[in-house]
Amino acid sequence: VSDTRQGDEPKVAADIVTEGALVWVRFNDETDFWQLSQFPDASAAFIALNPADGAVQAIVGGYSFYQSQFNRATQAKRQVGSNIKPFVYSAALEHGFTLGSIMNDAPINQWDRKSGVVWRPKNSPEVYDGPIRMRLALGRSKNVVSV
């Protein structure tokens, strides 16, 4: 058995698999071994841009085209907030913030003087951590910190 995972070495079998878990395996003809062929629980997309000119360098639309032909990078509909956060955080880093900078993750109200409407951005789920390092806010996708 070969294990290429990163992180701490499993101590007991239950660290790898538990009773009732569905485990996908396949036989590898090249190595003559059975190997795990797990599909991740999460679905994600990735787009890499050239910082010099904004040109797309790479697009990954999902884990396995065989499993799903749906391209999450080009076909999924997302709210703009999820897409713009990397640019907001990049701008903050360019203006002197660091990943260790303390941000305030607390409910806020934004008043629109023209319309007279109060806008209250929220986290999803609606949990606020108060003072939080920028690295954690980005990792937890905190909407309020991005505002």
UniProtKB/TrEMBL annotation:
<dbReference type="GO" id="GO:0008955">
    <property type="term" value="F:peptidoglycan glycosyltransferase activity"/>
</dbReference>
<keyword id="KW-0812">Transmembrane</keyword>
<keyword id="KW-0997">Cell inner membrane</keyword>
<dbReference type="InterPro" id="IPR050396">
    <property type="entry name" value="Glycosyltr_51/Transpeptidase"/>
</dbReference>
<keyword id="KW-0328">Glycosyltransferase</keyword>
<feature type="domain" description="Penicillin-binding protein OB-like">
    <location>
        <begin position="2"/>
        <end position="41"/>
    </location>
</feature>
<dbReference type="InterPro" id="IPR012338">
    <property type="entry name" value="Beta-lactam/transpept-like"/>
</dbReference>
<dbReference type="InterPro" id="IPR031376">
    <property type="entry name" value="PCB_OB"/>
</dbReference>
<protein>
    <submittedName>
        <fullName>Penicillin-sensitive transpeptidase</fullName>
    </submittedName>
</protein>
<dbReference type="GO" id="GO:0008658">
    <property type="term" value="F:penicillin binding"/>
</dbReference>
<keyword id="KW-0573">Peptidoglycan synthesis</keyword>
<keyword id="KW-0133">Cell shape</keyword>
<keyword id="KW-1003">Cell membrane</keyword>
<keyword id="KW-0808">Transferase</keyword>
<dbReference type="GO" id="GO:0071555">
    <property type="term" value="P:cell wall organization"/>
</dbReference>
<keyword id="KW-0472">Membrane</keyword>
<dbReference type="GO" id="GO:0009252">
    <property type="term" value="P:peptidoglycan biosynthetic process"/>
</dbReference>
<comment type="function">
    <text>Cell wall formation. Synthesis of cross-linked peptidoglycan from the lipid intermediates. The enzyme has a penicillin-insensitive transglycosylase N-terminal domain (formation of linear glycan strands) and a penicillin-sensitive transpeptidase C-terminal domain (cross-linking of the peptide subunits).</text>
</comment>
<keyword id="KW-1133">Transmembrane helix</keyword>
<feature type="domain" description="Penicillin-binding protein transpeptidase">
    <location>
        <begin position="45"/>
        <end position="147"/>
    </location>
</feature>
<dbReference type="Pfam" id="PF00905">
    <property type="entry name" value="Transpeptidase"/>
</dbReference>
<dbReference type="GO" id="GO:0008360">
    <property type="term" value="P:regulation of cell shape"/>
</dbReference>
<dbReference type="Pfam" id="PF17092">
    <property type="entry name" value="PCB_OB"/>
</dbReference>
<dbReference type="InterPro" id="IPR001460">
    <property type="entry name" value="PCN-bd_Tpept"/>
</dbReference>
<dbReference type="GO" id="GO:0030288">
    <property type="term" value="C:outer membrane-bounded periplasmic space"/>
</dbReference>
<keyword id="KW-0961">Cell wall biogenesis/degradation</keyword>
